[in-house]
Amino acid sequence: MTRVLPDSELEMFPALEWPVVAEHMSSESRNALDQAMASQDGSVLSREQCLLLANAEGDDLLGLLVAADMLRRDLVGNIVTYVVNRNINFTNVCFVGCKFCAFSRGPREEDSYFHSLETMAQKAIEARALGATEVCIQGGLPHGLPPFYYRDILRAIKAAVPNMHIHAFSPMEIVYGVELTGMPLPDYLKMLRDNGLDTLPGTAAEILDDDVRFVLSRNKLSTEQWKQVVRTAHQCGIRSTSTLMYGHVETPTHWVNQLELLRDIQQQTGGFTEFVPLGFVHQNTLLFHQGIARPGPTLAEHLKIHALARVMLAGAINNIQVSWVKLNRHLSQLCLHAGANDYGGTLMEENISREAGATAGQYTSGEEFQSLILEAGRIPAERNTVYTRISLKVPPDQVAIEEALEPEFA
Ligand code: SF4
Predict the structure, then answer these.
(1) Which helix or strand (DSSP H or E) is residue 344 part of?
(2) Is this prediction's pTM over 0.85?
(3) N or C: which end of the chain has fewer CB within 10 A?
(4) 97 ligand 1 Cβ < 6 A
(5) How confident is the model over 255-307, as pLDDT tens digits?
(6) Is the Cβ atom of 25 under 6 angstroms away from ligand 1?
(7) Which ligand 1 atom sits nearest the alpha carbon of residue 103?
């Protein structure tokens, strides 16, 4: 019978060694992980093996976590990266009505807001003064948005800070922009690219299964539309992140399906920069209060999704990010031991998770990231959005040269 692990034991997994933990695992799970580690390629695993790992409990779960950490070290080394960025949620007015969202407001609600182009440009100027290399822009979808507003945001920001990287507009916003302008999707994306869109957040994915999407949000773009936007963006030279929201109504089978799908897209386009598991923050959401969803992920689920992603995406998407806004500091460090190698962005003003009940705060400074990473026994480095430039953030005499040269970035 599978051993049930208390959280206190689960939290100790970073101290375990593979040969010891492997002895206690089922032969099926151990073989799957041995295969993935030997090939450093998640695509060698069969669907059954992936499902087995996604449902791992007890000693098999401990084995998955330890193997994911070993794979992480082999694939990307000991550096943990972060990007200095500012989040700008330019409006909270939205007609979509996702049940997991506590951020959106109706246009007449007292605390609804809409930033002008001038305000956004000013925020980008302030962000640059604080060392940001990226602004991340997403918002609600208000009725009656001027058709070219997303383009105009890009123009305003590039005019204010020409070399600021703009990471903006979820696939849902892209679909809305296409509807508003009547332009074909590829033309619309190229227009945004030519006006300064550098990369796209791979958000609005939640779970890419239309039955689950129907429960989470009836008005959201479909799985097919999400795939189309992301593939077309990659084909237009606009790279994106990839995401999955876990801990609500989905099952481990949905995780496997989505990781397979993301791996397939990556094999076709090479456009994903990273994978970001996003834990469901349940406190202030309809989805939880209507009794539809479970109350967010368990510790085992948080750790397992990061580890499963590292194993299944090995050789395809090598950067696995912890979303510090959804996790507390300690949990984010544990996820770094379960296969992750990136801390995401400093954000400066995070609103979406905070409104849903997350308590990790709105801003993590570069210095805080550095101490969290050093505390976890790894090497901090600031990166740009697409991981092509990194700068180590520890005194050089504290880093062995071999360790610093080890990582490879996608
Ligand atoms: S998640 Fe986005 S699209 Fe959905 S209700 Fe919230 S702001 Fe609107």
Answers:
(1) strand 342-345
(2) yes
(3) N
(4) yes
(5) 999 999 999 999 999 999 999 999 999 999 999 999 999 999 999 999 999 99
(6) no
(7) 6
